[in-house]
Amino acid sequence: MKPDEKVLATAGPHPISSFGGTFADVCAHEESEHAMSDLVRYEYAAGVARIVLARPDRANAIDLSTAHALGKAVKRAAHPDVRAVVVRGESARFCAGGDLAAMAAVPDRAAYVQELATTLDGVFQELAALPKPVVAAVEGSVAGAGLALMLSCDVIVAAASTRFVLAYTGVGLTPNCGVSYLLPRAIGQQRALDLALTGRRLTAAEALSWVLVTEVVDDASVGVRADGLAQQLAAGASYALGQGELLLRSRELTREQVGRAEARVIAQAISRPETAALIESFTGRGAARA
């Protein structure tokens, strides 16, 4: 049994109705994973995994070690027993992007930054490709690569006091980790250029009006709202939800390719037991109304 399967097997008999604490009572972390949990916590309960950036002293900025730890957490979340995922940062901060102090401390900055950007880009692509809903709970500051992490999620719940900034121009760097691909597709090219060239900071209300986030809630509610959404999604038809979000992300396919993919996926979906039960329930209600 693999480590992630041990965690899930341990968690199985202990349903938890809401997140709270660190789930020490249901998560059996392997000794070799302690270093990972110092940087990125992985928690699981009742079909929902939570991935938490745990460097609050660095505003949850990501160095190379954190990037690798995040990658391991995303791989664990790919387990079929995980039906939805929440991504957030510890201590009311989501992610300040790449760790500039770590970049400045190495002798070969170019090699370090290239490896960090390449590693993170791969992790974010894996996160976006998970065939299950991923909810981001964002608060504090979301900057640089933190925006790419956020936009790799499917649903984005933002605290009202959150601020969003690309931040690259202020330190003489350029967009990376896929943000130059993701941001224009989320808010349009002109608004993405505005953020990139001016370095302006968006409020949560502005981010909502620009459709950069899904919804804005008061600061005290962001975690509860994100967890509640994840639990709601985990209770749904997970295959249909996961495949649906992947289809909606398939913008680079041609119209013909998307049509073929949709036909293939719906044929697979209708063959699943959970779908059969939902259809039977729906048609039964229709017959009852008739």
TrEMBL record:
PANTHER family: EG:BACN32G11.4 PROTEIN (PTHR43459:SF1), ENOYL-COA HYDRATASE (PTHR43459). InterPro entries: ClpP/crotonase-like_dom_sf (IPR029045), Enoyl-CoA_hyd/isom_CS (IPR018376), Enoyl-CoA_hydra/iso (IPR001753). This is Enoyl-CoA hydratase. Belongs to the enoyl-CoA hydratase/isomerase family. GO terms for molecular function: catalytic activity.
